[in-house]
Structures are given as C-alpha cells and as structure tokens.
Amino acid sequence: MITTIHPGLFTTVQDEGRWGYQAFGMPVAGAMDRYAYYAANILAGNKPAAAVLEMTLRGGHFRFEADYYVSICGADMQARLNGTPVKSWSGFLVGAGSELVFDYAISGCRTYVAINGGINTPVVLGSRSTYTRAAVGGFDGRALQAGDVIPIGKDADAAPRNPRLLPAEFIPAYRDQIELRVLLGPQDDYFSEAGITTFFNSTYCISTEADRMGYRLEGSIIEHKEKADIISDALCQGAIQVPGHGMPIIMMADRQTTGGYTKIGTVIGPDLSLLAQAKPGDSIVFKKCSEDDAAAAFALERDACSRLQQVVAYNEQQPPGPARHFKITVNKQLYHVEIREVK
Amino acid sequence: MEGVRILAAGEQGLVVEFANKIEAGINRQVHRLSGLLLQQNQGEIKEVVPTYRSLLVYFDPAQITRKLLTDRVISLIHAAADDDSGLAVAKVISIPVCYGGEFGPDIAYVAQHNGITEAEVIQIHTSVPYLVYMLGFTPGFPYLGGMSEKIATPRLQKPRTCIPAGSVGIAGSQTGFYPVESPGGWQLIGRTPVKAFNPKADNPFLFAAGDYLQFQPIGVSEYEEIAAKAAAGLYQPVIRDLKVKGGLNS
Question: Is ipTM strictly over 0.90?
Fold first, then answer.
C-alpha cells in the first residue's frame, strides 16, 4: 500500500471513464489527458484501462510501504524520489519506505502516477474514476486527502524491473499557446458567417474557470444568427458551447451529459490531451478541420499509442547498455533505427 | 426520414436529430432508435444518449466508419417510427417542492416575466404531471415536458457556477431539478429535498425516461422533515400509476 502524506492541490483516481450511463445523466469522467494516462499505464506494465492518480497543478507527497514499480507521465511537477530528481515520462522501481514528492508543475497542468497493478479503489457503475460533483468513485468521490491509504490491485500485464524512459519523439511539448483542430457542428448553422469567422480568427484565453468539467474561454464575442439556446441535447467531450454571452466553453471529462446552448464545433479527440495540459492564462486558436482529417488524426493517435507499447516492450528485452538512434528515409517512408552494442 | 438530420459531434459522435420541437411522439422515436441500435451493437457503438428530439451515438472509428453507421441509422429509422395505438402504464412520482425564498431566487423574475403572481407560478407549475423525456446533464437530472407556456422564461444569459442540489428550475418551456450541485443556467423557483441519485442504492437513479413527475408544494418545515428522512435513506416518494398512449414499454 501507499500512504498519502500530502495530497497535492487536486489529486483524484481516474481510469478510462464511466461509459454506459450517460442516458441516466452520469458523466463519463476519466483521465483528462488520455495520452499521458495511457503512456503511464504502458510504462508501469499495467493493462491499458488500469486506474491511476491524476494530479493537478501541484502534486502530492507519498510514502511507499512496499516495493512498487511506478511511472510518471504528463506535466513536469519536479518529482523527487528520496530527494533525487526523477524525470516525467519515466518508470522506475520504488523500494519499501521510499518517499516520492512532487511540487508545482513547471510545464503542463496534470501529472499521472501509475503503479504496477493499478489503483484498486471500488468500482462504481463500471469504473474507478472519481466524479467529485456527485461524490462517485475513488475515495468516496472526493479528491485525495492526507492519510488516505492507496490500495494497489492486479490490473497489470507485466512487472517491469528496469528503469524505463520514453524516447523523446513520444513526449509532447507543452506550450502556453496551443492550436486546436475543430470539426464544425452539430449547431454551426446557428452562427452567423461573421460569428464563424471570429471563432477561427481570434485568440482565446483560458479563464480561471477551467476545471475537469469544462474550460471557459475569454476573447472576441462569437455572434449567433438569432439565439443561443437549443432544445437540450447530448454533449461529447471537446464540444464547444457558445451561450448567449458569446464566449466559448469547451466540455471536458466531467462535462454534463446534455446541455441547452448551441455548439459551434467539437475539438477533435487527439487534441484534447494538449488542452487538458493547458492552464488558466494560456491561449488557444481554433483551426477548422475536415471529417477526413479528423478521422486521420484519430488513426494517427491510435498508431502512436500502439507504437509506444511496442517500443516499451522492445526496450524491456534489450540489455540496458547505451543505444544510438537514427532517422532514415527509404522510399519517402521514415524509419526510426536504434543501434546497440551487443557483448 | 422526412425532417431527420444526421449531424457530426466530433470524429467519434453522430447526432440523429428527428425534429426541432419537444413532443412525446418524437421523443418515443428517439428512444426506439436508441433501443434498436443497442440491440444490433457488436461493440462498434460505445454508447447512445437519447435526448428530447435527438440521439447522440458514440462510435469507435476503428470499428465502423461514419458512412456505414449513417447507413445503419437510416435503415432503422422507419422501424423507430411512432406508434401510439397501444395503452401503457406509466409511473407518476410525487416530488415535494418548497417554492420561493432562498430556495427559489428567480421565482419573482419568472412571475414578472409572465405578468402573473408568484402564487400563480406555483399553482401552474404543480397542476399537471410532466413526462420524463430524458435524463441528462448530471446523474438523475430529469428533463420534463408539458410545462405551461404561461410560466415559460428564458435561461440566464450567463449560467451560474454553483447551484445547490434539489433546485427546481425553468428554462424556456422546460422544467426540472438539479439532483447534484452543479453549474447551470436555469431560472430557479424552488427546491426539493428528494434525492434523485444515490450511488450506493441498488438502482442509483430514481427515474427513467418514460416516467412522469408531479411537483407538490410544501412549506419549509415539511422540507426539513423530508430532507432529514432522505439523508437517512428512509424517504419513499409517493408513486401512482397512469395509463398513457404509446408508452415506451408498450
């Protein structure tokens, strides 16, 4: 087990989310940055859907009461293991009695901590994800508190022994200005031409009202043709609502399942991980995306995740000696080549 | 198929919009299509979310293309057509509400907007049972239809960031209540002590689409009495039967 000495600013248990109950109004919840969440589980040797800790802006302080293999992915919260700095996007063995301490995020917003075996809090309606608004999942539906004992389960495929570090190409760069690709609809026909132009040609700032439910933005007012209200319908993650005041709100993991404001478009799934790492004060520009481009981006994200799994599995079989990496293009196809000395 | 629109909600969402109005027959088509899609699902559909007059289908683009899913939806729309010939028994659940005061800060605005008194707002709001067209927003939130236009009031221009659990509101010609604390843009007219969502119960959701709710005015002392019972898990709402045309289970 793992003891929470300090929980950090807002730390919750999250997994893939609580799918299947939106028809009863139950939000999906789940990890905000699904790429970092997925990478953390791969590095820790976990099943892809295992539960992890999601820390926000400032991480916690944890004591490990037994030996565990742990990984950290996402924002750099200046992690230290028994006083020695450890990198984000890495996995390592933590001995019994060790203390892992996080501080403020110096890049990004959310850090995922995966432990081999996954976090074993009770499953509520098919998921371990914490949804604080209805007090569901995790630790009685609330954020972690000092003294909470984190139970570890058996959601693992393997028990890694060696330190793991992801190759640089798999590590996203977090910036305070981001571009998000948007597929128009389902209510883009409620906006004037000028409104759509404003939306795609303005820079929006993330307001202080930005949490797991949604990101409220500030900037130029987006004009509707007539009205901003619709008969309430369902909301997917990434949906961009524009209420009567003309300021966009992007729906995130804890979003309400339905809403009555017009949705100008939807941020495509693969770009939501980047948005999940953005903080109040960061700026956003929206870029129009076609159906085909959105489908291609989805396929690319899936490929990146499966390549990531292969790379980690491959590295595990190799001797821990130094390796040199090359990029080689043959017939316009880019290959990543690794050369290792074999004794 | 006439009037039906198929729209995009991101690369993993497809919206089937039957019409642009709140009507029981249209809502029945939404729920029927929802059921038919789930019956045929081999895992390519992640979830369906039926609402008043539209259905959001979450699909896995790795397993089915938007084109193929659209074709499937079109082939099922006729089978989902409304049939109100049969009679069905629906549940009417009584929801006690303490109106006005700190529980309903917008009741004066709703009265003024419609040129009536606060007492008339309460009388009209409690006069008929409302059909639960859908659940949504937060766990167990019932979206109701059939509210009188005499008390219809637009949403707030800027939604509130925090609304207490149990708050009863009006948005346009819709009414309903917030089962859990959340942000929202509805005009608040009262509050109920009844819990519509309990994650520890065998059935965590008090209502389902197709049920009816009837609001019943109560005073502050009765509110507190029921709230104490509900907190201890001892409150059972009054439920009666109602015969309806073309119910969801007919």
Answer: no
